[in-house]
Structures are given as C-alpha cells and as structure tokens.
Amino acid sequence: MSRLANRLRGAVAAAISLLLVLPLAGCWSTTEINDLAIITVLGIDQNEHGEFQVSALVIRPSNISQGGLGSGFSGGGDNPSYVVAEAVGDTMFQAMQKLSSTLSKRMYWSHLQAIVLGRKAADEHSVTILDILMREQQFRKNIDVLVTKGKAVDIVKTKPHLEGSLGAEIHGIIKYSKHTATTIVQDISHFASSISSSGIDHITGEISSTADRGSSISEDGTKTPSLNITGSAAFKEGRLAGFLDRVETRGVLWIVGQVKTGSTKMSCPEGNGNGISLEITNARSSRIPKKTADGISMKVVVDIEAEIREIACDGFELNPDRMDQLNEQLENTIMDEMNHALKKAKEEWQSDVFQFGTTIYKKYPKEWKQLRASWREGEFRRMKVELEVRAQIKRAGLIHDSIRVDERR
Amino acid sequence: MIEKGRISNIQSAMLAITSLTIMGHLIVLTLVISHSKENGWIAAIIGTALGLIGIVAVTRLSQRFPGLTLIEILFRHFSWPGKIAAIVYLLYFFILTLLAVRLFGEAYKSILYETPLTAFIVIILLVSAYAVYLGLETIGRMNQIMLPILVVMAIVVAYLTMPNKDYSNLLPILGEGWMPVGAGALSVMGWFGEIVIMGMLLPYVQKPERLMKANLWVAALTLIFFLGPVTGPVAMFGATEAAKMTFPTFSEVRYIEAGEVLNRFDAIAVLFWTVGLLFRISIFYYGLCLGTAQALKLKTYRPLVLPFGWLIGAGSLWFAADYEEIQSFLFGVYAPLNITMGALLPVLLLLLSRLIQKLRKRKEVAEER
Amino acid sequence: MPETRNRKDAAPHDAPGKELLDLFSSTEDLVTRSIRILGLEGRLIYLHEMINQTALTNIEQSLTDLAWMQPNESDESRQEHNKMDLLKAKLAGGTSLDEDGVDSLVDPILSGKTVLLFEELRQAFLLPTSDAEGRSIDEPVTDQVVRGPRDGFVELISKNLMLIRRRIKSPDLKVEYITLGKQTRTEIAIVYLKNIANEGIVEEVRKRLSRIEIDGILESNYIEQLIQDAPLSPFPTMAAAERPDRICASLLEGKVAIVTDGTPFVLTAPSVFVEFLHSNEDYYDGAMPASIIRWIRALGLLIATFLPAFYVAITTIHQDLLQTPLLIRIAGYREDLPYPVLVEAFFMQLTFELVREAGLRMPKAIGNAVTIVGTLVIGQAAVQAGLVGALMVIVVAVTALTTFILPNYGFIQVARYTSFPMLILAGLFGFMGIILGLMFILAHLCSLRSFGVPYLSPISPAHKDAWKDVFYRAPWWRMDMRNPESGIRNRRRSRTPIPHPPDPETEGPG
C-alpha cells in the first residue's frame, strides 16, 4: 500500500515539476488571434531598380462593440476594414521581412487567397518566387497565382465591391469564372510542377482592372474600377511568353479539356442579324499522340454539347437540317478558337501550354527523351496537330422559334 | 516469461499494421517517391513481395520456439554468438525508437516551429512510457480501438482528395526503366524488415498456429494502405514535385477543399501522425525494455521504463544535428540496416536452428547405437 | 464504549443483567422494566428511541395475557421448564445466555429490538420492536425519468430489499448479510442472481468486503472507495443507483448489488465504461430514439471534456483551420481583450465550477437557476467589462451544459476535471496535445479492470454480440445475449421472436 502511495507521490511530483517548468519558457507556438496580421492578397512586383516590391492586403478586423451579446456586427462604414502594406527588398524574403516591420501584428499568410504577379516579376523571377512559395510552410499549395499586365500593387489597392475583402472578391471571381470558360487559373502547386516539367509550360489567369474592359460596377453613382479576370498569361521555361486574349485562352481550354461551361457566339447563317448565342453544357477533350513516319503528331478530339441561348437573327426557324448546319458552324467556331491559340502559343512563342510534351511522355517515353532537348527550339513548332471537333446542340431553351413581329393575326 | 498479458491474433496484427504504416507514410514514402517517382506503386508491390521473406522467417522462428521472444531465443539457444546478436538487436530497437521519436519532433516542428524539439520529445515519451508501463495488453487494446478510426479517416481523406487528382500523372509505366523501381523496392523491403519487432510480441499471442495467416494479412494490408499515399501525391502534384516534398501526405491533406465547410484538414494529418507514431514508439520501446529485462533475467521490465525513456530522449536529440543528417541516414543506412536485421538475420537464425536440430538428432541417433 | 470481547474470561455471567447494563452505562436512553409473565420474573431492556412503542405495548399485552394451561404440574423446575418451552414457541426461539453470552444481545438492542431477560433461568428473548419508520418511498431526486417507475430506495435496508424482491420474484435471488463498521455496525447485504451471476465475481465481492476494517460506514461510497479496483483512478468502477429498477436491471445482467443500511444508494459491481453512458430510460423508450440519444450522450462527453481545449487550440495555434470570415470575426471580437485565450478559458471554467458548487448549497428553489443563468450573467458582465470574449462565454456555457447529459455523477466529475489539463495541453501543443491527452486517458482506460472485467469491454476486447447495447440500442426482440464478461453463466436473455401482426391466413382474427 505504501508503495502505491509512493508511486502516486512520485507521479504528482513529476507532473507538477513539468508543469512549472513549461510555462517558464512561454507558450511557444501560440499566437493570440488578434495578434495576427491576416493577409489575403499578395502582390509581387519588380520595380525600376530591380528590387522586389511586395504589397499585401492586411485585414483590419473591425471592433465589435462591447455593448453586450445582443449587438450586431458593425460593418466597415467609412472605416475600411483593410490596409495595404508595401515594402521593397533585394530578395523576396527580405521584402517580406521589411513588410513585417511596418505591421504591428505578426504576418499570417495561411489565409492568403490570391497571389498577383506583376509583369516584370512574372517574367524575370518566377522561379525564385516559387522557391519561397513552396518552402514556406504557411503558403498553402492551393493558392491561386495570377499575372497582371501592369503592376500588382495597383490590383492590390483596388477596392472590393461585393465582398468584405479583396481576397474574397478575387477568390469569388476565380471560382465563378470557371463557368464562363474565359480564363484558366492555376495554383502554386501547378505552377511549380509546370515550371519544373519539360513537357508543360505554365499558364495562368490574367487579372486587370475593368476600367478598360467594358464592364464596370457603380457605387454611389460613380463608376469605380473593379477587377476582371479574362485571358491568360503564358510562360515559357520560367519566363513570361505573352498574354492570350479570351478567344485564344478559350482555345487553350478546349485543347487542355478544361471547359466546363461557357458561351459562344456564332454569326447568323444568312447574315441577317446579330448572331446566335449558345451555352456549352458539356465538353470533353482528349489529346492523343500518334507515331508517324516523320515523328510524332498530336490529335486533339473535342466533344461538345450545347444549348441555344439567344437567337438574334431575322426569320430564323429551327428544324433538324438547320440544327445540322448549326452544329457544323459550332464545330468550325471552336476549331477557329483552337487554331488561334495554337498560332499564338505554338508557333509564335513555342510555349507548350497545351501539355503536349507531357502527353507524349506518358505514351511514348522513349521518343520523348529524344524530342525533349529541342522541344522548345523547333520540335514543338514543327509537330503536326490534327483537330477534330464533334458538336451537338441539344436544346433551345423554353421557346422554339424566336418571337417575330406581326406573327399573329 | 515476464509479460503475463495476452493479446489476440487480431490485436497483434493490428499493432504490426499501425507501426509499419505510420513509418511508411512518413519516411518510406519520401524514399520511394524520390527513387521511383511515378512508378512507386510498382516498387511497393515488388518490395512487399520481397519483404515477405523477413515476415515468414520471423513468424516461423517464433513458432519454432513457442513462448520465447526473439531475445530469449537468442540467449538460450545460440550460446555466445546468440548473446552478441541479442545485444545487437537491442541496439537496433533502441535506434529505431529514437529515430521515431526524433521524427515525431521534426514533423511537428514543421508546423509549430517555435516549440523547442525537447518539448515534443518529452511529451511523446511521457505518454509512450505510460503505455509501455501499463503493458502489452493495454497497448494492444488501445490500438484495436484507434486503428479502425484512423482507417476510416484515411478513406475519407482519400475520397475528398479525389477531384484534385489526375491519375494520368502516374504514366508512363517504367518510363525510366527498372533501376529506379528496384531502388524503391529495396526501400520497401527494408521497411518491412521492421516487422522483426514482432518477434518480441508474437510469443504472447493467443493462437500461435494461426500466426502465419495473420502476418500475411499484415503484409497485404500494409501494402494496400501504402498504395494510397504512394500514388496520391504524385497524382496531385506530379512526380518531380512530390519527390521534393518532405512530407507529401501532409501537403496532400492540406490541399483538400471540399466545398466551403470542409477545408483545411491539417488536423487529420496531426491525428494520424500523433497516434501512429505513438504506437510505433510504444511498441519498439516495449520491445526494448522487455528484451533487456529478459537478457538481464529480471523479474519485470517495469523498472527499466524510466531509464530507457531518458536514454531515448537524449539519444534522439544527439542523433542528428539537423534534418539533413537525418535525411542522409534515411537514404543511406535505413534500408540496409532493416534488411539485415529484419530479413537476413531471421532467415539465418531459422536455417541455423534447423541445422542445429538436425545435428542434434544425428547425435542422438549416434549415441543410441 | 468498553470492549466486550475480553470479558469472556471473567466469571461466567453471574449477573447477566448487570453485565448488560454495565455495557450501556452512562447512556440514559436505555430503559429497564420489570415484567411478570406466566409467574416468572423478567426484565425488559431496550433503547428508548429505537423501538416502536406500540409494538412493544402489543407484545407486552399478549405476553401478560398468556395463561398457563397446565396447573397440575407440581414440580417447580418442570413447571419452569415447560413455561420456557411455551415462551420459546411463542417468541420463536431464544438466546441461551450460557451458549451465546451477553454480547450477542448488544447488537439487537442497538438495532432496536427489546431484550426480555430471565436472569435466573439464564434465557433471553429478542422482541421485534424495531422502528420501521423512515422516509416514505418516492421518486429519487437525483434520478428522474419521464417514463418508468417512480419508486426509489430509502434509508432502511429492509425496505430496500423489499423493493428488489418485489421486482425479481425468483428463488435464485440470493441475499447475504454482512455487518461492517466497528462503531456503526452497519448492515450490508450482498444480492445476486445465482443462476446468472459469475460466481467468481461474487466471491471477489465477498472477499473485498470482508477486508474492510473501519470505524464507520455512513454511505455506500465508503464501501465503494474501500473495495474498488483502482483507487487512484478518477474513473468509477462501481455504479451506484437510487432506483430499484436500475439495480434490478443490473442484477438481471449478472451483476452483484451491495445494499447498505442508512443510504438509498445501492452499489453494483462490476461496472464498465459503457455502462456510465447508459440510462435506464434508454430501455423504456423505442430503439431508434434511444440509439440517437446514446450517440448524443457520447458526443456530450467529448464536448464536455474537449471543447474548451479545442477552442484554445484552434484560436491560438491552428488558426489556419478556420474559415477566413470566421477568423476575421473572431479576431474582431478579441481586438481589445487583455488576456490570452488560455488564461480566459481557465478563468471562465473556474468561475463556472465555483458557481456550480455554490449552487449546490443554495436552497432548492434558487439553486438550479443560479447555476446556469448565473454563469451566463456573469459571463455577460465580464464581456461587457471587456475581460473575456463573448465566444469564450458561449464555449464555456455549452461545455457546462453538456456535462449534465451524463447520467452518472462520477463521470461528470471526470469530464469536468479532465478539461483543465486538456486546456494546458492544448495551449502548449495544439491538437497534438489534445490527442496525446486523449491517448493518455485511453491507455489508462485500457488498463483498468472492474472486478476482473476489462473496463472497455465489450469494445475491447471485442464481443460483437454485446455491441447491440453499446453503439446503439437494439430493440428488445434483438437483445438476446448477455455480455459474456458478467453474465457468464447464462448468456441468453430472451427468445422472443420479432413482433409482427397476426398472419391473416394462419392466425386471422376470430
């Protein structure tokens, strides 16, 4: 019985001594939540002196009034709930460190929702930027990376409209842009894997202000700039190759197979009106490499289903023959888009955003080894690409023929 | 026999699975993916087949000398070379235990990087020592409850990450030839060599006759559980990137974004690591204490628990100065060490014991004449 | 009181009456009266407050009215002898002072019986005058159900045994009496069903009870603490109940019950973990609602133990697990608060414990209300004063409320007091700390046994049959086998087939 008591005494002593020692060292990895500077958007630029310019959107959590448990959440009002902090440094890490010295809270990157690269930074420093993005534990690999034609800082400073913070706004725009199939956005992990792979070149969405895009949002009667993600930026071997507009981007999407839904416009078959608009409801594509006498060629097969959304042609009637016509027309439109993309990326830039290289590797690894060395120095350009599109317009919405003037008696 | 507890066949199999799987997910995964890249799964299958050698040898050995643990067998039946081999085995258990402890610390340091390594080591050893102190039955029961929970969670995670995976990343098959696959397979075989620790537990199983079947199941299930992690990160991130990651499964789990609610599953990775490593450390710690007690012919292994705790803690800190040294240990020494201790030696012992038996029979026959 | 035992070597009971009175000297509530029965001189000795005066008067009356029917016997000694026989027949036996000694009369007097002493004839009789009053049978305060019987145990062991016997009318129900406590001489009864209970467990109970050496047993908890398996463990290994239906259910499962005089709480052994998450009501409700409630209870146990720790871990170490809007909102809440979350959590939990404990002592009318509302009000005030965050108050209040889900009081204690070390672990190591704490507890549970039965059975070691009563509650027509650990003799509970309406063809109405 006494041995038991001794054991108990020993255990208690050990526990107490441990507990006493540990708090002396402080509670190491804990950070109070209100000591965190929550950053939701990060912009990386390169300024005239070749230094890294880092801009971060820091959330300022608004003070919930301490008037009791019943009071509501007071919104921003004129007090914006975020600030933009900027800093410059020789390396990116240095710039980030300088950033933290201006903030009264500890930098917290885990809730980052978007990273924007300025044009110059994307062009010259993608690889070094990626290193820190992959290494730092706080950057999650599924954060989207976007490129802008101008400076990232300007994007970061844009005021958000529908959401509380710019990060959420960008995140939302990206999410729903999948439905319009006008852009392709990739995250850090894809960025890294495409850059390191010899068979893919990276491509990601391009973000810019709407002032020059034809759509805008008005607040209090004045038009304020908002953001728009359309088109994409293509890379080649770690450097920026160029920007693709929405049609060309759509072409890439078709080939890579990432169209989920989207809309297309075709001109009227008789040329009497504005055109017919369709919505793509289902799309599948596959890339098949083929071995031929003079090397490898690639066949791209695309299968689509679509629905008619708007008929703006005079006197247009729907019947099976017409449908066949329309189908063919759709197929041609899509092929056009793909060709545009191929022209720009394959012929002009030799940037393999279509993942052709990897596709060849997966099927003919030995042949790929030979092609690899000079892939982007001519082999890619030389490769023959065969396109095949099969389109099916299935439905036309709630009405059949369109409304016509003076139709009824 | 110092340990009076008994565990059922299922419990012993589960203990083996837990302890192997966690090391697999944490360490062997990086080895295999960096060697064999996208063909890791082929390496895994081949490696498992090779690993069966060790498993069969250990099981047979245990069945031959019923009721005796590995150390006891070596001490009693193999005279002085056996004693030396036994001490080598004890050192081996010691090293593997402190490796696991150090890995626990390193893994957590990557998330909670301000906490000193010592703190992690202290706390995992405390809980582990408590479990070891309570005995084999306790450890077996705990594992019996926790392993199904872990398996269910793993399946959930696998399901949730499916939309992000592109399995065509696993092609081409044998793009680089057989060499990388071979290297990976050897790592896997080495990994399975760790099952030799079961030599310390098998004597306490309730139905020794059914052991072979149970251990074959262990191999099969461990392989199945390993296939997920060896294909997942590659499918998600591509082979080159996956090979560079220190903790591929962790990165994989962080990627989950199933709708707005179920984000950020880091906690699950934490659960896996903690529980899995806890059991692994406990089993090896237990084997170490029990073996030493049996070698020193003590009545119980309990007084050894605390001193060994200290030794393991100190050892894990001195073991390597930084993570690079650990990496070089893992890539260089780990597999061969395990293959020797876990496959070669048991096979040798088995053959020797058969030989000795035959010699003895001949002697008896000769004496009868 | 002087030891009676060493009196044995004194002169053999020359004056037993005087001896008896000496034992009770200085006690003014011992009454002695002379009585004349059948011409014999006798003395009534009793403790004034322990007897039922009416009963004594009735007995006296019937004794003095005894007529001696055989006046013809001339021999005086024969006469006396025959009178003794008559008395013995009427009063059901008697105590011979030469054989049993004066000491055997002490306990009955203390229990409220009256001693009728015939000194020269060296005979004593015990008259049953014990006061059987006491609290009336009513629904126990600590254990109330919506549907089910409304009687509860009282403080008298005889009534309690009656409540048990009325439910289990089987000759296999065995009762064994033991007296424990040197000063209190409390009567204890071991009750079990011989054809179901594990004889080994019954024997173990007997053994452990006989090892008890203590001055007083005032409550069954004394016994529990003196015979339990793991005195250092916070987890209870024996269950106590105030309801006879609960005890009888346990008896039917093969458990052993220990009834203690002086307290309505009856102990049962062995008890395992899952039992403490069960309530009798589960069996009086349908299978489906009962199963869901079981899960809610298990969830409640987890919440009560881990919620504050979880909150601390998420807000201080694992902030990346929150959704961004939630993170921003919580950051907003905590903007001007002075203390770190860990300190706040401790503070609030402690406050709740204090209020709860105070609430127990308050008069019933106010008591319950104060506990919960009081905490919320204090919490609200603290929030307004800017000391703690509103979210913290919610967390603590929810934790406190869920502890009351647990049917067993011992478990509630465990949950509450474990939440404190969990807080520390969470603050230091985050989730990993919580999980390690959980593992620590699990290790402890796995090593615990209750009278030989592993504490976590039937989960581990796994007995699939018994799972019907653990993870969910199977309907009665499926509960056919008992838990093998305790009901080892008799596995089969019922043979009822699944209930069904009469088959129109074969059985048909009319």
UniProtKB/TrEMBL annotation, chain A:
Location(s) in or outside the cell: Membrane
Mode of membrane association: Lipid-anchor
A cellular component term, taken from the record's GO annotations: membrane
Pfam family, one: Spore_GerAC
Domain Spore germination GerAC-like C-terminal: 230-397
Protein name as catalogued: Ger(X)C family spore germination protein
GO biological process: spore germination
UniProt domain Spore germination protein N-terminal: residue ranges: 31-204
Keywords carried by this UniProt record: Germination, Lipoprotein, Membrane, Palmitate, Signal
Claim: tRNA-binding is one of the keywords in the record: no
The species this protein was found in: Paenibacillus soyae
Taxonomic lineage: Bacteria, Bacillati, Bacillota, Bacilli, Bacillales
TM region(s), chain numbering: none
Main location: membrane
Record family assignment: Belongs to the GerABKC lipoprotein family.
UniProtKB/TrEMBL annotation, chain B:
Superkingdom to which the source organism belongs: Bacteria
Record Pfam families: Spore_permease (PF03845)
Main location: membrane
GO CC aspect terms: membrane
Membrane topology value: Multi-pass membrane protein
Gene Ontology biological process terms, A to Z: spore germination
Record-annotated membrane-spanning stretches: 12-34, 40-63, 84-105, 117-136, 145-162, 182-204, 216-239, 267-288, 300-321, 333-353
Cited InterPro entries: Spore_GerAB
Subcellular location: Membrane
Keywords recorded for this protein, A-Z: Germination, Membrane, Transmembrane, Transmembrane helix, Transport
Similarity comment text for this entry: Belongs to the amino acid-polyamine-organocation (APC) superfamily. Spore germination protein (SGP) (TC 2.A.3.9) family.
Protein name: Spore germination protein
Organism: Paenibacillus soyae
From TrEMBL, chain C:
Keyword Cell division among UniProt keywords: no
Database matches in InterPro entries: Spore_Ger, UPF0353/GerABKA_families
Renumbered residue ranges of the record's region Disordered: 487-510
Keyword Membrane listed: yes
Pfam families attached to this UniProt entry: GerA (PF03323)
Superkingdom, taxonomy of origin: Bacteria
Keyword entries, A-Z: Membrane, Transmembrane, Transmembrane helix
Entry GO terms, CC: membrane
Residues annotated as transmembrane: 298-317, 389-411, 423-445
A biological process from GO: spore germination
Family affiliation: Belongs to the GerABKA family.
PANTHER family: LEUCINE ZIPPER PROTEIN 4 (PTHR22550:SF5), SPORE GERMINATION PROTEIN (PTHR22550)
Protein name per Swiss-Prot or TrEMBL: Spore germination protein
The organism of origin for this protein: Paenibacillus soyae
Classification lineage: Bacteria, Bacillati, Bacillota, Bacilli, Bacillales
